[in-house]
Structure formats: C-alpha cells, structure tokens
Amino acid sequence: EVDAILDRTGTTISSDIYGHIDCCVKLSGMPDLLMTFINPQLMDDVALHACVRLRRWETERLLSFVPPDGSFRLMNYHIGNLAAVAIPLCVRHSLSFQNGEGKLDLTITAKQTMGRTLENVSLEIYCPLTVISCSLSTTQGRYTFDPVIHLLVWEVGKMDLGRSPNLRGSIILQAGTSYPEGSSSIRVHFTINQLAISGLKVSRL
C-alpha cells in the first residue's frame, strides 16, 4: 500500500509504503525456513509473527522461522522517506467557476507500471460546501455525488495501458453563494498485482 502526497505538477512531496508477507504452509514435519532479502535496509519498521526468531532479524536482517500449518501473516513492514518513489499514474485536472457553476475536467493516465495493469482505480474529491449537485459524463466507469458530505467518487475500475479515462462536466453551486476559494484535494485508490513499487525483493527462501 502506497500512501503518497503529490503536488499539482505530479511531483512526489512525501510517501510511505506499508506492506506485508502472507504465507500458506502445507509441509510435513517441522521445517526450519530462512528467508533473505536483497535490500532489507529499506524497511524501517516491522511487526513479526511469533514464529520468527527475533534476534536473527535484529542482528542479520533475515527471517528464520519454523512456520505453523495453514495460512498466516509472516510480517508487516513500513518503508518511509522514499521521495523518489514512482507513482504509477498521473492525474490532470482543471476546475473553474463562472455564472453560478463550475467546470470540471479530470483525466487519469497510467505510467511506469512495467507492463502491469492498474485495477480497482477510483478517485475521491471532497467538494466545497457550496456544491449541491454535479452533471458529469465519463469515458469509463461511473461517478456518484453525495450531497450530504459533498463527496464526488469516480469509480474507474480496470485501466488498460494506453488509455486515459476522462470525467468532465458541470458542478452546480448554491444560488447566491460566492465562488469557492483554494483547491480541493484528490484521493486516488488503485491496485497493481505482482509489482513492488518499494523496490523490496526477496533473495531466497
């Protein structure tokens, strides 16, 4: 999971990565396993399963353990201070106000996915309190607007490489209100299977 803040130009301001290693063990006897990483120094905070020998992790940065049967989470980890992390998508937006309404134009483009497909893509925008409704059209997915919490959600879904889904249209304001000042933040959610953005790699098991 990548938690990152980007500015209007797409430059990463800060980023944190939260990950985990899940296991499903179906081995006979009591196997003694050893997992090593190419770059364990990337992890600055971990939570280990009780089967892991803590001292070997603290001194050698490797996972030595006798696993229990079945499915379990071997470890949770955090990687921080990655200012240069490559965010695999780009969001371009334009919002202007005139004659009692706003014009929104929002485009999302995949980049640096190493051939992987972006899935479960969605965007959330908390609109100003003076926004009462939206009249938008999208080239992919669907959108919803909650007038109670003023939340606009665009569910894009799966993004094929080379496509740039777009959402555009009008945002209706309450009559007699002034135009909103400042800009709204955009929260983006996505999933990429079998891609380690953090750069963390298992050497061997």
From TrEMBL:
Residue ranges occupied by any MHD domain in the UniProt entry: 1-205
Domain of life: Eukaryota
InterPro entries the record matches: Adaptor_comp_med_subunit, AP2_Mu_C_sf, MHD
Pfam families: Adap_comp_sub (PF00928)
PANTHER family linked to this entry: AP COMPLEX SUBUNIT MU (PTHR10529)
Name the UniProt record assigns to this protein: Clathrin coat assembly protein
Organism the protein comes from: Armillifer armillatus
